[in-house]
Design brief:
It is found in: Cytoplasm. Its EC number is 3.4.11.5. The protein contains 10 helices and 8 strands. It is an alpha/beta fold. It folds into 2 domains: 205 residues, Alpha/Beta hydrolase fold, catalytic domain (Rossmann fold), CATH 3.40.50.1820; 102 residues, no CATH class.
Length: 319
């Protein structure tokens, strides 16, 4: 493997926001953009770059508004989220492409990142030469209701704890009176850091619980130890899940815009929090897509990662 020097920087976008970006691999190679999950999940330790042949690929990652090394940070109480919208995130990606003088690129999206990848591709189909989606979501109302309330039928003890915390700390909230996601959004915008901190811990526990099937069982994500990460992740997740979701996914309605783009959709059969029905619906509306359902994995796993790496290898060969 050629030893290419990684580079990174900050890009000023709209609304006095700056997003962090980094580039790995061959600067003259096939451009590929990685879009992380969450919302607020960040690039982590940059393991995503190992999903590409960096001798042949110019791999770019960025951290979305409000999280990671991007500024201002959503963990800070007085950081407004008014400009954190799906439309602004799409604009940020397009500005990043223009700043790097890229004509077209391959998109990789993981979990929430798959929603953002689809939304960007539908807004700018002429800029996308291929798509790989991992743990597929489209962030519809049905999906958000399921992941925040419906999954409680499978994990009743954990959901009882999540809902009880909201009932005890949000004035006027009673389960069934309004959506739980809205209650936690209110908690994460409290002026009281103690309330925000405790609410974020409850949400983090729920996150680790509902993704536990199809993995090695319940495992606490070490990233929650970082208070800034945890606060930003939960605040951004509850924010976006409250404002983005629609009764019927807008993404499914716009699939005609990207039917010609080659794609691989990778999903775990045991993904309880994001059932495979979403990936299946998307695939049926996308003639140029390949659907891979991994029977043993859940919301990610080693076998799914192998499929992810292979899908990028195929796209880089065909492009």
């Amino acid at each position: 493997m050629t030893d290419f020097e990684p580079v990174h920087g900050m890009l000023d976008v709209s609304d006095e926001q700056s997003i962090y970006w980094e580039q790995w691999g061959n600067p003259d190679g096939l451009p590929a953009l990685f879009i992380h999950g969450g919302p607020g999940g960040t690039l982590g330790k940059s393991g995503y770059r190992h999903r590409f042949d960096v001798d042949r690929t110019r791999v770019i990652g960025f951290e979305q508004r409000g999280c990671g090394r991007s500024k201002p940070h959503a963990s800070v109480a007085d950081t407004s989220l008014s400009s954190n919208t799906l439309e602004r995130l799409i604009d940020d990606i397009e500005r990043l492409r223009e700043s790097m003088r890229i004509d077209t690129w391959i998109l990789n999206g993981v979990s929430w990142g798959s929603t953002l990848a689809l939304a960007y591709a539908q807004a700018h189909p002429e800029r996308v030469r291929g798509i790989v989606l991992f743990a597929v979501t489209t962030t519809s109302q049905d999906q958000i209701r399921w992941i925040t309330e419906g999954v409680g039928k499978i994990f009743p003890e954990a959901w009882e704890r999540l809902a009880s915390y909201a009932e005890n700390n949000v004035t006027g909230y009673k389960r069934g009176s309004r959506r739980l996601i809205e209650a936690y959004r209110q908690l994460m915008n409290s002026e009281d850091i103690k309330i925000r901190n405790e609410a974020s811990k409850e949400w983090a526990l729920w996150e680790d619980t509902h993704v536990s099937i199809g993995t090695d069982g319940f495992v606490r994500d070490a990233r929650w130890d970082n208070e800034a990460f945890r606060l930003a992740f939960v605040r951004l997740t509850t924010h976006y899940w409250s404002i983005v979701a629609t009764d019927e996914s807008e993404i499914l309605k716009r699939m005609n815009r990207i039917q010609h783009i080659p794609a691989t959709l990778i999903h775990g059969r045991r993904d309880i929090s994001s059932p495979a029905a979403t990936a299946w619906k998307l695939h049926r509306l996308w003639p140029n897509s390949t659907l891979i359902i991994d029977e043993g994995d859940g919301h990610g796993g080693a076998s799914m990662v192998e499929h992810w790496t292979a899908a990028n290898a195929r796209l880089s060969t065909e492009s």
